[in-house]
Amino acid sequence: MTDLTGAVWRKSTRSGGNGGNCVEVADNLPGLVAVRDSKDPAGPTLTFSPTAWGTFVRAARSAS
Predict the structure, then answer these.
(1) pTM of the entire structure?
(2) Can you list the positions of beta strands (E) in 2-61?
(3) What is the per-residue pLDDT across 43-60, written as a single tens digit (0 to 9) for each?
């Protein structure tokens, strides 16, 4: 299991006033980016390499 103790979580810039239906990202940890559901901060997280996360973000931006 990955230690996320030092993670600094931030909400997606696309999050609106929709009752908290959004994700949070922690990209301050060396070598990984963590993603979680903001409604369940103690729940499971997904982790990605910074390269994989960057690829996802670029693809998501180009699709919008």
Answers:
(1) 0.83
(2) 10-11, 23-26, 33-37, 45-48
(3) 999 999 999 999 999 998
